Automatic annotation (TrEMBL):
SMART domains: CRAL_TRIO_N, SEC14
Descriptive protein name: SEC14-like protein 1
Pfam families from the UniProt entry: CRAL_TRIO, CRAL_TRIO_N, PRELI
Signal sequence, renumbered to the chain: none
Domain PRELI/MSF1: from-to ranges: 1-154
Domain CRAL-TRIO, first and last residues per copy: 298-474
Species whose genome carries this gene: Nycticryphes semicollaris
CC terms in the record's Gene Ontology section: cytosol; Golgi apparatus
Gene3D superfamilies with a match to the protein in the record: CRAL-TRIO lipid binding domain, GOLD domain
Domain GOLD residue range list: 500-653
Gene: Sec14l1_1
Length: 694
């Protein structure tokens, strides 16, 4: 009956799909172990899913049926965010010892939240809610399938009995045991409490070598030269994990130094280190990360405007990377390159760091497995808190933390401005506790005093922009020209995709054919946020509210214009028979936006219902004093002779309870994300704010 719920179960709406990963059956059919990867649609706030960057979560479930002992053990653990949240669940069906007509059921679970983007308490509540709901429904589901079996005429399953061949073999030979090529799979079954001595004895676990074997020791000179001081226990862990990889992993085996990083990241817990290392090796293979330095050339815009680069080494011999974050136009880089190229560039930096560590190990004659990063925050301001830019930064940190553990030896943060605590609040939950301990933060010119830069970097190589004498070849950064910005469609056509999500959408706006986006609000006081750039022409931005839903979106044929728009979308929602003030109402004053302007804003909703964001073609008003057209009007009409405008936009809805604690807020909108703010409009009735930057 329990097996009937796979691969999907209509009684569990959140259970979307499942795939069989491993399956094992013993020769006598007494043991059946099956491992599945389950896809779940967790009932979580949209904000949390957006920040986490996932729509679904994946769990691994192992079911171990022992017909000899008459038990079914079910073990489940989370695969998604396993480095942040650890969920373990164990269920057991057994026969009652006093009454064989009764089935006993036991269930236990544990939840350990290490960090989750600052939403630890929210995740705990969601997990408890889901778990409680599952317990209540568990009996109902099993009874449903039992009844289904009865309706099919299945009311009895015969007891398992040993095959005759097995009986003869056990009576004639005690030394020979059947060995299956897939015998390693039941290793998980033994954890689930199956008392099968046959499996325990024949399962050859490469992570458990016999003490005293020749491979159980590493050469002392090799350890001292390349790995550093290791205790006997740490050395044994490295040997066991490397041996397991050699016997099971198909592909390039990482070097001992890299395996050691994953062991250190998990305090030499072999099971945990093996899990994250295997995930990383799979990720490296999928995205061809091993070949990135040889096959990928960074775009010119990165070489010109990414204000970071390698610069000699620190006093401990670690490679030194200098990042002038305050001089970097994060929004411009995201808009010109997309998240994929930025991530790929950061990965190439990390790969280069690994290579430099190997070189410095040879040069200095001692193990060097990490690098030092110097971050100069001179120039950091509120424009660096641009929401999609911060989101891209957080996702990059997530990837680097998962695949390059224990590579950051020290992080020196210099000239931290007053806005830095805001950025630190957003970023710090993504950073491992061990990594955070390596951070040294200096405000103003404190880095020049005792305990400052000179304690870690030789005077001869301190960069010139920090008052040193060494010329630093790191690019100075600066604003990326808007002429280099690309549309979402252009970014989607890149050959290599490390991320599938594109932040921005493109839309075309025509005279008489505005582009409209529908947002349904269930809870009043939710917050609608937006960020858009006017790429071509002038537009008018409006926000409307309606109590009833408009007709399903339709692609506008554009009638007499006969203009196709391969590079943008055009959707109209407001029916032509609708009347303003009767069928829908305007909740914000119209905002005129000129070509080249960037607009960010937010609106706190007062009522539930349907909100429509509208970008409309802006017609140039005629001159009031004369019938002759002005020179500006003629030039403007020539500029938009096709009566077509283009915008790139990003919208999001945030619950009111989450708004002030999220990556953007009403206050930050007022402060501004751009260097130059030309105008700000706000409405006291709807608590909305929009900011234009030219």
């Amino acid at each position: 009956a329990y097996e009937r719920r796979f691969p999907t179960c209509p009684l569990i709406p959140m259970f979307v799909a499942s795939d069989t990963v491993n399956e094992y059956k013993s020769e006598d059919e007494a043991i059946h172990v099956i491992e599945r990867r389950c896809k779940l649609d967790i009932d979580a706030p949209r904000l949390l899913k957006k920040i986490a960057g996932v729509d679904y979560v994946y769990f691994v479930q192992k079911n171990s049926l022992n017909r000899r002992e008459r038990t079914l053990h079910i073990e489940a653990y989370n695969e998604t965010f396993s480095n942040r949240v650890i969920i373990n669940e164990h269920c057991c069906y057994t026969v009652h010892p006093d009454n064989e007509d009764w089935t006993c059921f036991e269930q236990s679970a544990s939840l350990d939240i290490k960090s989750f983007f600052g939403f630890e308490s929210t995740v705990e509540k969601i997990a408890m809610k889901q778990y409680t709901s599952n317990i209540k429904k568990g009996k109902e589901i099993i009874e449903y399938y039992l009844k289904q079996l009865e309706e099919e005429g299945i009311t009895f399953v015969p007891r398992w009995t040993p095959p005759v061949a097995c009986k003869l073999e056990s009576s004639t030979s005690h030394t020979r045991r059947p060995v299956s090529p897939a015998i390693n799979i039941p290793d998980s079954a033994t954890k689930e409490g199956l008392n099968n001595k046959e499996i325990l004895n024949t399962s050859s676990s490469p992570s458990e070598p016999t003490a005293g074997t020749p491979d159980d020791k590493l050469d002392a000179d090799y350890i001292k030269r390349y790995l550093g001081d290791l205790t006997p226990m740490q050395e044994s862990c490295l040997i066991r994990l490397r041996q397991w990889l050699q016997e099971t992993h198909k592909g390039k085996i990482p070097k001992d130094e890299h395996i050691l990083r994953f062991l250190r990241a998990r305090d030499f817990n072999i099971d945990k280190a093996r899990e994250i290392l295997c995930q990383s090796l799979t990720w490296r293979k999928q995205h061809q990360v091993d070949y990135i330095l040889d096959t990928w050339n960074p775009p010119q815009v990165l070489q010109d405007y990414y204000a970071g680069g390698w610069h000699h080494h620190d006093k401990d011999g670690r490679p030194l990377y200098v990042l002038r974050l305050g001089q970097m136009d994060t929004k411009g880089l995201v808009r010109a390159l997309g998240e994929e190229a930025l991530l790929r560039y950061v990965l190439s930096i990390n790969e280069e760091g690994l290579r430099r560590c190997e070189e410095n190990t040879k040069v200095f004659g001692r193990p060097i497995s990490s690098w030092t990063c110097l971050v100069d925050l001179e120039g950091l301001n509120m424009r660096h808190l641009w929401r999609p830019g911060v989101k891209a930064l957080l996702r990059i940190i997530e990837v680097v933390e998962a695949n390059y553990p224990e590579t950051l030896g020290r992080l020196l943060i210099l000239r931290a401005p007053r806005v830095f605590p805001v950025l630190w609040t957003l970023v710090s939950p993504f950073i491992d506790d061990n990594t955070r301990k390596k951070f040294l933060i200096y405000a103003g010119n404190d880095y020049q005093g005792p305990g400052g830069l000179l304690d870690y970097i030789d005077k001869e190589i301190i960069p010139d922009f920090l008052g040193g004498e060494c010329m630093c070849e790191v690019p100075e950064g600066g604003l990326v020209p808007k002429s280099l910005y690309r549309t979402a469609e252009e970014l989607e056509n890149e050959d290599i995709k490390l991320w599938t999500e594109t932040i921005y959408q493109s839309a075309s706006v025509f005279k008489g054919a505005p582009h409209e986006v529908l947002i349904q609000i269930v809870d009043a006081s939710s917050v609608i946020t937006w960020d858009f750039d006017v790429c071509k022409g002038d537009i008018v931005f409006n926000i409307f509210h309606s109590k009833r839903a408009p007709q399903p979106p339709k692609k506008e044929s554009l009638g007499a214009h006969s203009i196709t728009s391969p590079g943008g979308n055009n959707v109209q929602l407001i029916d032509k028979v609708w009347q303003l003030g009767r069928d829908y109402s305007m909740v914000e004053s119209p905002l005129i936006c000129k070509e080249g302007e960037s607009v960010q804003g937010s609106h706190v909703t007062r009522w539930p219902g349907f909100y429509i964001l509208q970008w409309k073609f802006h017609s140039m008003p005629a001159c009031a004093t004369t019938n002759l057209p002005r020179v500006d009007d003629v030039l403007a009409s020539l500029q938009v002779s096709s009566h077509k405008c283009k915008v790139m936009y990003y919208t999001e809805v945030i619950g009111s309870e989450d708004f002030r604690g999220s990556m953007t807020s009403l206050e930050s909108s007022h402060s501004g994300f751009s260097q130059l703010s030309a105008a700000t409009t706000s409405s006291s009735q709807s608590h909305s704010s929009s900011m234009i930057s030219r």
